[in-house]
Design goal:
Largest sheet: 6 strands, antiparallel
Order of helices and strands: EEEEEEEEEEEHH
Number of helices: 2
Distance between the termini: 28 Å
Helix content: 40-55%
Shape: rod-shaped
Strand content: 15-25%
Radius of gyration: 37 Å
């Protein structure tokens, strides 16, 4: 039928023969195929062997199951010679009548590590890109908020100036054309009040503004990815 060869980890070098049926792969001893790996879930995946071939299915594991360099999202057919990665453990699926040499096993282990490295690098780039896009959206939202606040503050300032101008205009007309001794002092007080209001408004809006540094748009391009693959050996 089929067999799998564990290429690394505590059970590295072991050969497990598979007959027709379903085999649960996990970290717990009650699994059909137990892999002592901390990155393997308790019930990680299910391997099915039938007349149509061999199939692998992920059981909602934390770190996922990889067939070559592709994540397994549903029941996927496994061709002989393919590598399956569960956590940090790599297994090699072969036909039952195939007897690989040591060079074949080393090549399969190298191939599995290369596929895992390719997947991890693609995942790291995707996470860095999503983080970069999130920062860009936050910066755009912050700039729009600052612009909106500045526009509202300027509109309020114009409203205050217009109200003060109307009050001065009315007071001047009242002072020069009203009868009595208090006409001109009222006009003078209105003019002085308008000048004081303008000075206070100018002093309030000319203070030092707090600026928020904007991230460089090329930050994502300079993202460095450092991965340690020595634990996979």
């Amino acid at each position: 039928m089929a067999k799998i060869i564990v290429l690394n980890g505590d059970r590295g070098g072991e050969t497990i023969r598979l007959w027709r049926g379903q085999f649960t792969i996990g970290r717990l001893p009650d699994s059909d195929i137990m892999l002592p790996d901390a990155n393997v879930s308790r019930h990680h995946s299910r391997l099915t062997v039938s007349e149509q071939g061999c199939f692998i299915e992920d059981l909602g594991s934390r770190h996922g199951t990889l067939l070559e360099a592709n994540p397994v999202d549903s029941c996927v057919a496994v061709k002989p010679g393919s590598t399956i990665t569960l956590g940090k453990t790599i297994v090699w699926v072969c036909e039952d009548n195939y007897h690989p040499s040591e060079d074949d096993i080393r090549y399969a282990a190298h191939k599995g590590r290369r596929m895992l490295r390719k997947y991890l690098e693609a995942k790291a780039r995707l996470e860095a890109f999503e983080s970069h896009q999130k920062r860009q959206r936050e910066q755009t939202r912050e700039r729009r908020l600052r612009s909106s606040r500045a526009r509202v503050a300027w509109q309020l300032k114009l409203l205050k100036v217009a109200a003060a101008a109307c009050a001065v205009y009315a007071s001047v007309w009242l002072g020069f054309f009203a009868q009595g001794f208090m006409g001109k002092p009222i006009a003078a007080m209105a003019v002085v009040g308008f000048v004081v209001l303008m000075k206070r408004s100018k002093t309030r809006h000319c203070g030092r503004r707090r600026t928020t540094p904007v991230a460089d748009a090329d930050t994502f391009g300079e993202t460095q990815i450092s991965l340690d693959f020595r634990e996979l050996a």
